[in-house]
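Follow-up to my post from last week.
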Amino acid sequence: MSLDAVLARIDADLPAATDRLMTLLRIQSISTDPAFKSECDKAADWLVADLNSIGIQAEKRATPGHPMVVGHVGDPDSDVPHLLFYGHYDVQPVDPLNLWTAPPFEPKIEDTDNGPVIRGRGASDDKGQLMTFVEACRAWKEIHGNLPCRITFFFEGEEESGSPSLVPFMEANAKELKADLALICDTSMVSRGVPSIASQLRGMLKDEFTITGPRIDLHSGHYGGPGLNPLREMARIIASFYDDETGKVTVEGFYEGVHEVPAEQLRQWQSCGFDEADYLHSVGYSMPHGETGYSTLEQQWARPTLEVNGMWGGYTGAGSKTVIPSQAHCKITCRLVGDMDPDALRGRIRKHVEDHLSTDAKVSWDQDLEGSPAPVMNIERPEFEAARGALSDEWEREAVFTGMGGSIPIAGFFKSVLDMDAMLIGFANDDDAIHSPNEKYDVKSFHKGIRSWARVLEALTKAG
Amino acid sequence: MSLDAVLARIDADLPAATDRLMTLLRIQSISTDPAFKSECDKAADWLVADLNSIGIQAEKRATPGHPMVVGHVGDPDSDVPHLLFYGHYDVQPVDPLNLWTAPPFEPKIEDTDNGPVIRGRGASDDKGQLMTFVEACRAWKEIHGNLPCRITFFFEGEEESGSPSLVPFMEANAKELKADLALICDTSMVSRGVPSIASQLRGMLKDEFTITGPRIDLHSGHYGGPGLNPLREMARIIASFYDDETGKVTVEGFYEGVHEVPAEQLRQWQSCGFDEADYLHSVGYSMPHGETGYSTLEQQWARPTLEVNGMWGGYTGAGSKTVIPSQAHCKITCRLVGDMDPDALRGRIRKHVEDHLSTDAKVSWDQDLEGSPAPVMNIERPEFEAARGALSDEWEREAVFTGMGGSIPIAGFFKSVLDMDAMLIGFANDDDAIHSPNEKYDVKSFHKGIRSWARVLEALTKAG
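User reply:
Got it. Predicted complex:
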């Protein structure tokens, strides 16, 4: 089958593809606000109809929340690869509305210094990204009458509101959804024009603890001096988590399961065009503050963290109160990499705190906060190198296996619920303002994104 | 003049004196709640009438808040000592009402293991204490027709709500209020049956600061690692305030102006019957946590502190949020002793924080939080030793010059506004539950308190 004809079709159809995206962007599918429930439903209906128009069997499936869209194309009995494509049709709320330069659900093309962009809520996250794949399939079908592989489409409408229905739906429909590999288009390129496959994500451990000193709040005049203050105790214990010289976490065994980044991967990262200074300066940093001896990208993608996300205790209102409070509180999260075991780590952190407590101080732990290991992207599979080649061809620049500092739960769910590897390819840029006013998607991301998927589909078919 | 006759009169009049106190206790003079404004007024009226009934010129004086009561007795042109007596007629709110075993404004005598008590809001703080002095004056007048010295009575009705009118009123009536020495009856005995003159109070310095890391709140996935976290920074800086081995504050120059307690004073403290174990155990401590090498009483009365009263930043709601916040906040107070200079100390603390900040962290300071040096009780004045002798006689036990961990602003105001020394003598016990449900005053405190003042008045007249 000829790829060139498909790419030519994509180029010719770009105005119509853009119009279709605009139609989808006009639907106000804000999932977190019940007032927009019917709009979420409408977006699901629109996607079903659009898939049907290409000749793909698709339907809306009810959940306790917003509906899923599931579609299938290709012969289950053939031996071509079976891919699942995941995206989400719901969008973030638009507040603060007054910071938008145009109504968020009246999308338009705008010229910018970096070329034309599609401006509107969901243009990048995730309607625009989702449609890059749909449009690639459309072009392929129009040129060749069918797709080079078997594909299951799986769109959810609750990604921006915690995906409460996702795992139950996957469990209830595991047989139908299981494929050889999942493709996810919900990530960014590491820098403008550098095609990226996110191959290294971090896991997560959450915990929360309370340090109790005196039985009751005390008057700092009466007990100031002999009285143990849990705020001071909390500060001392948090400070004890870190070696300020090296930036390392001092919790015993913290780095067990952490692996150094392979040289080849480091080479890709070093040449991926990531602008460290800009990344740091944009938020007010002059330097990276993590472990010494590691670059910003390594600190963020390949090294674990123990982060304090919240800390509170005592009097926090206006003015002053002369209190030695009974309790101090702290919320922490760890980002995990490699083979770090969240359960073992939770025990180590708790032991560290208990070992460092003063006489008369007590600690209690919040229960049932979840942990998940770092998702493993199985980049040894030939599809990963095949996709990298396809992306490199399209963008005329070596594609990069990047890391991601955050966690993408869906990738972990595909593995844990369906035992299916996932590959994350996305064309967003860091300046897309997702979750913020004036969200946009570069027309170049949309156009070359569609072309990228056309190439990737062919490459995966050959590799599979 | 015969003291014995006065003491006998006090003994005989105790039932009537108790009835008078009960009447005053039935007035619901809660100063902080506007709903009780007329009750505060009523308490002031009652006191004016009661003073008048003894033959003391007294009147209610309006303020922007609750009224003052000012009374005078004695000849301005005589050369007997002129004393000012201060007390307050307002009381704390009574919440939580359900914890009271009887209505708070229906006082009654109850028998307890430590003897009979007068139970009711204000019984100890400060109506009972205030009336010990008034009743001593009444007995003296009844026996001798006049008092041994000239006295100005000064009662306020806003002590439990921050005394907003106090200093302006003192300034506006300085000439009228100025006396040789102020007597204040609003403190406790160091332990049951041990008469106490609070001669060592601590001063106060308040400050508040904010540490800013990134310009905005960051996602802990994206920036966790390279991102400086102001909560960690705050913890490190608070921890750096202290030497955990010695319990000392590490701020350079912090102890400038701190003096060791004279041996004679230490001896009094050591033999004052203070039950250290009980004091600590009652709030959950097994040991004192202040500077090593100092007793609990020294840590609390004679050593300065740097206390964290509030600390907060990041996400503090239910569950978890993966945020590196932009800011962390902290409220501190210092208790000052000796000649510590609050302004110099503020500068030292601010310098310590600034010197310990990491690159990219910034600190800002709340302005206009007040500081006041430790009030100096001029115990070299002969009146102090005279009063101590009088109290020792009454309680048949050596009276003690004690310290107080807290600050009594009125003592400082008498000095700063009227250039008048103050002497703090009180008969409350630590178990009086002031500010709490079921407040009480031992009948013994009331009875021997009245007798104590009769003796003190005579002793001060001789000493003055």
